[in-house]
Backbone:
């Protein structure tokens, strides 16, 4: 059995109207697993069900071989880190971190040593007497982490913990979280809508949509081999063209797009689901495009809506027929009087999906 097992879970905020339906999830000990998806997809509901803030209407929650299904939150040995830090503003750093230990009636002579160790771990030694208002956002998040870690939880749950930080602090805290997870070996479930966070932190990513799991895989699996159109779009395959399948083999799919032939070496789902003549959709990333001076294989003409110069790269807003596209290419924009360009996409960067 896995360290965390959610089996046949029905759970939500309104009785009889679950967000999660017959939901299954397995997490191994020592993993850092991200629940990735848009707002309302069920990832926070999953986290709150594991924590006990939402009691499942049906199914079972098991952590470390112990049945947590009917246990109240305070009986589950779980650490929680929230988006808004949830620190006590009137308590010092020391007192905030000590709070959980005192609630567990840990002997006072042991508390000081535990707090010294955990503050050293999160690089906050010397900040013991400061109030939360005297700390930066990154320091407050470190206090929240320290408070969760010091109780030695079986599991650490993190709900969008970096979303209130600026870009530089988010980068620093991602590195800090990764370091702590590897150093402590603690099992973590991390909720985020940010694909960069999920890709950079996780041993596995679970992509969720409307209360269901769309795909589970390593960061490389999710980024390079999305299995559904939803995952492809969510993970950055923003460009979308429609066409008709001309032919297929194990090596390639040939598609007609408004009279232009494009070749792909990748499909989402089984090739058996797509037949010659079927309408299909093609997905590719803006930064997987290449700007051409003349016509080449696997290229298509696109009309320019506008171009944004961004230093080393230029971002183009384009359209091919009714399809709006983005292309991010190196170098300066083409001259203003140029109204169309040719872009190419390598076959292994194009994903073909049967149109529903």
Residues:
């Amino acid at each position: 059995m896995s360290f965390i097992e959610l089996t046949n879970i029905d759970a939500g905020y309104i009785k009889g109207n679950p967000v999660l339906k017959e939901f299954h999830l397995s997490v191994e000990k020592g993993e850092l697993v991200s629940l990735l998806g848009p707002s309302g997809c069920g990832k926070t509901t999953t986290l709150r069900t594991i924590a006990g803030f939402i009691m499942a209407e049906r199914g079972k929650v098991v952590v470390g071989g112990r049945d947590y299904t009917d246990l109240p939150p305070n009986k589950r040995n779980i650490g929680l880190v929230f988006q808004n830090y949830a620190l006590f503003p009137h308590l010092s750093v020391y007192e905030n971190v000590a709070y959980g230990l005192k609630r567990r009636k840990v002997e006072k002579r042991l508390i000081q040593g535990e707090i010294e160790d955990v503050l050293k771990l999160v690089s906050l030694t010397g900040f013991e007497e400061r109030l939360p208002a005297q700390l930066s956002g990154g320091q407050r998040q470190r206090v929240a982490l320290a408070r969760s870690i010091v109780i030695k939880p079986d599991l650490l749950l993190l709900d969008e913990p970096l979303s209130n930080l600026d870009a530089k602090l988010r980068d620093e805290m991602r590195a800090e979280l990764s370091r702590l997870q590897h150093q402590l070996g603690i099992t973590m479930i991390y909720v985020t809508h940010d694909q960069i966070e999920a890709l950079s932190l996780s041993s596995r990513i679970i992509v969720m949509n409307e209360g269901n799991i769309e795909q589970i895989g390593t960061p490389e699996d999710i980024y390079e081999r999305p299995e559904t159109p939803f995952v492809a779009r969510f993970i950055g395959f923003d460009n979308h063209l429609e066409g008709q399948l001309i032919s297929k083999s194990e090596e390639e799919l040939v598609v007609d797009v408004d009279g232009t032939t494009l070749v792909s070496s990748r499909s989402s789902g089984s090739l058996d689901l797509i037949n010659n003549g079927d309408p299909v959709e093609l997905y590719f990333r803006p930064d997987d495009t290449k700007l051409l001076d003349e016509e080449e294989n696997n290229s298509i003409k696109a009309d320019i809506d506008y171009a944004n110069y961004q230093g080393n790269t230029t971002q183009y807003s384009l359209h091919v027929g009714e399809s709006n596209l983005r292309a991010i290419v190196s170098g300066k924009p083409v001259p203003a009087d140029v109204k169309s360009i040719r872009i190419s996409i390598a076959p292994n960067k194009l994903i073909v999906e049967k149109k529903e």
